[in-house]
Amino acid sequence: MVIMIFVLLLLFGVISSWATDYELMLEDPDIFSPCTEGPPGSIDARQAVNFDDLVVDQEADILRISGNVTVVWDVQPTDRITARLDFLHYNRGSWEPTVISMATQNFCSIMYDKNQYWYRYWTRYITNRHDVEKNCLRGPATVLVHEPFDLMLKLENFRGPLLRGRHKMVVLFNALDERNIPRPNPICLEIRGEPLKLN
User: Fold this and answer.
1) Which of 38, 43, 175, 199 might form a disulfide with 79, Cβ 3.0–4.6 angstroms?
2) Rounded distance, CA 196 to CA 23, Å?
3) What are the pLDDT digits (tens) for 109-124?
């Protein structure tokens, strides 16, 4: 019996250590969808940010992004911004959490930290760093100037359970005042799609 348990544990360890690559097939060509179960009073990405001067072209598994966005989120310059990302799986009619999530209690302090996913996939391409570090996402009229960049819709070297079916990322930004009371208008957005195994 002990040998059987040892073999099962060893097999589980080997299987879970294999890395897998995925390509994300987006459900919505607009990329950002409003949250289906957002917090009360939440606004979506298009209510918080003006995307009129941003160009996004999709070519297979690549998003080619260029241009500027202007933050119009109605919060105060002294507010602290929190951020959370949760990865959910659609199973039998409802969205269930997975083990993949990340959060920060002070997004503005880490948005240019090279070790953060936020930086790797987004903020490293914002060229007016000095202005953005000072204003962060606290509008109104904070402009994020992007150099043209390609965003691969791939999850590489993923170590974990096999991803199958519909998934979504839920991103939530909250603004908290000096007394740590949340503002009534958090930003909530979803990116929905299906990961397709590549190897």
Assistant:
1) 175
2) 5
3) 999 999 988 898 899 9
